[in-house]
Amino acid sequence: MPYPSLTGEEIATQPADWRTAAAQAGVSAADLPQRGERVAVVGCGTSWFMAQAYAALREAGGHGETDAFAASEFPYRRSYDRVLAISRSGTTTEVLRLLSEVKAPSTAITADISQPIAGVADHLVDLGFADERSVVQTRFATTVLALLRAHLEIEGALPAGVATVARAAADAERAVAWEVPAELVACEQFTFLGGGWTNGLAQEAGLKMREASLAWTEAYPAMEYRHGPISITAPGRAAWSFGEPPQGLAEDIAATGGLLVADSGDGGLDPLADLVRAQKLAVALAEHRGLDPDRPRNLTRSIILG
């Protein structure tokens, strides 16, 4: 077992979880976005970032126009054929309010179909097998994206260059076995970079680090990094690229004295599997700092507003 924490244990199940989700994608296909539908994907926190990743994947694959919103920022005046909500707990206030008020047909992906979300969504997709005891989300979020990615695969709508979920799961096994380097644990700041669908992964990596280890993290589209954010990179700080860095970026980061983390190209990790490595870094850094990665300060499993 790589870590004694619940989060560490739950991180390790992800390859199997993704394979289970891929098998479920066909069973749940009728409840998921159909080809050509105009879809809004909503969530809060980690779920919002998975929504961003899926929206970019679906549009790039030609499956249909897709927008991603934080549930609290949903534009009710817009017209959609379907609203897809992601909520691990099934109790998040903003998601429940949205599903109660939205006029479009809705589908909710959740880890607990016994919760109030079952009463406000038109259709449910049950990912209870990927539920977590830790407050910090890891496997549920990535399993949602694996499910949706597998559905695009079934529909023949995976964008060019995006691997199958089977390949991602195999890469995740390598990521689970990865030993976090001491030089990364010693870094004082981390900037996560993505492009297209991996922008959501970069945002999620930054959030995971902040939640679990109180780390100083930022996240940007990789091409935007040069437009200001690169000024923060320096010796003792890291820039982590999900997918192949844009041409010249590695040299630019080297010139700052910062550490570039990038596992891509031939033989490199699938970006979703690379997120597993970022999760492991968050746990390792939390434990190095004497923090409990399962119970971040000021956070609970679900945000329920009065």
From TrEMBL:
Listed InterPro entries: GlmS/AgaS_SIS, GlmS/FrlB_SIS, SIS_dom, SIS_dom_sf
Domain (SIS) ranges: 29-162
Gene3D superfamilies: Glucose-6-phosphate isomerase like protein, domain 1
Keyword presence, Cytoplasm: no
Annotated EC: 3.5.-.-
Alphabetized CDD domains for the sequence: SIS_GlmS_GlmD_1, SIS_GlmS_GlmD_2
Cross-referenced SUPFAM superfamilies: SIS domain
Enzyme kind, highest EC tier: hydrolase
Keywords carried by this UniProt record: Hydrolase, Repeat
GO function terms (MF aspect): hydrolase activity
Domain of life: Bacteria
The keyword Oxidoreductase appears for this protein: no
Protein name: SIS domain-containing protein
Natural source organism: Kitasatospora cinereorecta
